[in-house]
Design goal:
Length: about 350
């Protein structure tokens, strides 16, 4: 019963097959190969926009390179208080931007609200150069609480950001899960609708959590900034010499919407888990929208679930609001599903959480 994280799962068999195929023969290194060219064209078609696209090995690198493309060393990046870039990346964005400051904004359920953003980013900075130059807004899609910004929320935040002179970054480590959810609300949704059309300038497009072996992309909707990213990517050791093997993974993911099938499965498993826990009498911290379930479980139940083989994390910091509702004898836990989650694992967990 793995609900520790989606990156505890391996890779999708289709990705592994594509890797074996893509690795046959020889091809130019450092991205000068046909597969890399094909992926770049496919990404432009997917978003319906010219893009600058760069493969990197980690989501942390994608985030920090996107931010470096948007924010000067003397700039400020606004992100949710619980954003991965603030709490989980060891200061990578500060390092790669060469000094930008990350500033947290509160928000229930992992999402930045428009009023909170305006209140923080619109605060007069005082005499010029006393405060870092407000530069970029970073949104996590899906959020750290498994919630998903709607198209109009992204557009409203981007509009407010533009009014303050800020660029917009999207941390899409779980973009596939978010997009799959949004498609369930509106069938004709496109990736462009929730990115560049809604004001996003740069996207960290994650594939690893969703079933790639090791494949993330920096996607710039303003390709003019591409040269700068390429230098920074090299300096941060992320220019992968066998780029075609990353390209092979991305092509497998994009082929016949495999990336969406995998994300839909993970999302379905999360819904099944959440509904089962509610039926068993437990409360949820947040609405289930992507592939994360936050549940309030009795503290005494937690070691027993682990004893039975369930893997998951307690998540005390995920949103004060949910935390408070947990009470002294209860704990907010995070359960993440993936493309590899089996319904049997979910059923077993629900059964245990109903009994003990
Ligand atoms: C929202 C979010 N962004 C970025 C990352 C970074 O990914 P990586 O561990 O590949 O650097 C993660 C990983 O957990 C994440 O959850």
């Amino acid at each position: 019963m793995n609900f520790a994280s989606d990156n505890w799962a391996g890779a999708s068999p289709k990705v592994l097959e594509a890797l074996a195929h893509g690795s046959a023969g020889i091809a130019p290194a450092y991205g000068a190969d046909d597969l890399t060219r094909e992926v770049k064209a496919r990404l432009a078609a997917l978003f319906g926009h010219e893009v600058g696209a760069f493969f990197v090995a980690t989501g942390t690198s994608a985030n920090s390179l996107c931010l470096a493309a948007l924010c000067p060393p003397y700039g400020a990046v606004y992100a949710h208080d619980e954003a991965h870039i603030i709490g989980d990346e060891g200061g990578a964005s500060e390092f790669v931007t060469q000094g930008a400051r990350l500033i947290g904004i509160p928000g229930v359920g992992g999402k930045i609200g428009l009023a909170d953003f305006k209140a923080v980013a619109g605060k007069p900075a005082g005499p010029a150069s006393r405060f870092p130059l407000p530069s970029t807004l970073s949104l996590t899609q899906a959020s750290e609480c498994g919630t998903v910004y709607r198209e109009e929320e992204v557009a409203a935040l981007s509009e407010a950001a533009a009014a303050f002179g800020l660029k917009v970054h999207m941390d899409g480590a779980r973009f596939a899960n978010a997009f799959a959810f949004l498609c369930s609300l509106r069938g004709d949704m496109t990736p462009g609708d929730i990115t560049w059309k809604a004001g996003v300038d740069a996207l960290s497009l994650g594939f690893t959590k969703n079933g790639a072996l090791l494949a993330e992309a920096v996607v710039l909707f303003d390709p003019e900034r591409a040269d700068e990213v390429e230098w920074r990517r090299k300096r941060s050791g992320q220019v992968l010499s066998k780029a075609r093997l990353v390209a092979a993974q991305l092509l497998a993911m994009l082929e016949d919407d495999h990336w969406l099938d995998l994300a839909r499965h993970a999302n379905r498993m999360a819904l099944m888990l959440g509904h089962g826990l509610v039926t068993a009498g437990h409360r949820l911290g947040f609405d289930i929208e992507a592939n994360e379930v936050f549940a309030v479980l009795p503290k005494a139940m937690i070691p027993r679930l682990r004893q039975e083989g369930a893997l998951f994390y307690e998540y005390p910091r995920a949103s004060l609001a949910a935390d408070r509702r947990a009470g002294p004898d209860a704990e907010l836990v995070r359960l993440v599903t993936s493309f590899a989650t089996m319904p049997e694992e979910v059923e077993q967990f629900i059964k245990l959480a109903s009994q003990i």
